[in-house]
Amino acid sequence: MNIPATSKRLVLSLYRELLRYGAQLQYTDQEYFLNRIRREFRQSASLTDPKEIEFCYKRGRALLDRARVV
Question: What does pTM read for this prediction?
Answer without folding.
Answer: 0.80
